[in-house]
Amino acid sequence: MNKYCLECDDYKEVELRNVERTLSVKGEDITLSIDEYFCKDCGDSIYDEEQDSKNLLLFYDEYRRRNNLLSAAQIKAIRQKYGLTQVQFARLLGFGDKTITRYERGAIQDEAHDNLIRQMESEENFRKIFNLRKGNLAEIDQRRIETRLSQSKTKIIIKPIKYGSKNEYTSLNQLVSKDYIFNKFEIAYCG
Predict the structure, then answer these.
(1) Neighbours of 60 (CB within 10 A)
(2) Is the pLDDT of residue 143 over 90?
(3) Could you tell me the domains of the chain?
(4) What's the pLDDT tens digit per position in 68-110?
(5) Which of 18, 137, 139, 140 has its CA 20 to 30 A from that of 11?
């Protein structure tokens, strides 16, 4: 493969090598082993936009990991859990329209945004925000999301467990004691 070498001022054959590099991300030095192109003639490092972008994302992912921030993939998974577009999710959270797009493409979110996005993992929290901010969405999108949420409500099924030859039954009012629940009933959560 040939790429332009600044040192040789010509297109030269290059090779991909694994090297250790340090990059400062938001004031934090991060050292990683990354792949980088080098000129086979002079040995100089070669700029390659695609490879350099991949490497930058590796540094950003490591920064997120060290600082307990959601990864781009985790943010996308939370958004997709509710069938939202990037713009819809951003509007529900009160962010700019392109914010979620940037985060899913690798930009590092601040802690406040991370905390709010993280809270959306819980359907209960999502419902609260949706009910507060659904006016930021088109009516057709509101109805689609409301339908999806109504279909995903968690159901709790309480089945009596047979003891010997007789079944034990109780009213919901008697299900206050944890001991009673676990000793007398099997509880199944269906989502």
Answers:
(1) 20
(2) yes
(3) 2-66 (3.10.20), 72-151 (1.10.260), 155-190 (no CATH)
(4) 999 999 999 999 999 999 999 999 999 999 999 999 999 999 9
(5) 18
- Rounded distance between C-alpha atoms, residue 31 and residue 17, angstroms: 16
Please name which of 138, 61, 50, 51 lies closest in space to residue 92, comparing C-alpha atoms: 138
Phi/psi of residue 38, each to 5°?
A: -135, 145
Cβ neighbours around 163 below 10 Å, total: 10
Identity of the amino acid at 63 = Y
- What whole-number distance in Å separates Cα of residue 160 and Cα of residue 120? 34
Strands in the chain per DSSP E: 2-5, 10-25, 28-39, 45-46, 155-160, 162-163, 166-167, 185-190
* Percent of the chain scoring above 90 in pLDDT: 77
86-93 vs 111-119: helix crossing angle, rounded to 10: 100
Widest Cα–Cα separation across the chain: 90
The helix/strand/coil state of 92 is: helix
Three-class SS of residue 97? coil
* Polymer length in residues for the chain: 191
Amino acid at 35: D
What is the model's pTM?
0.72
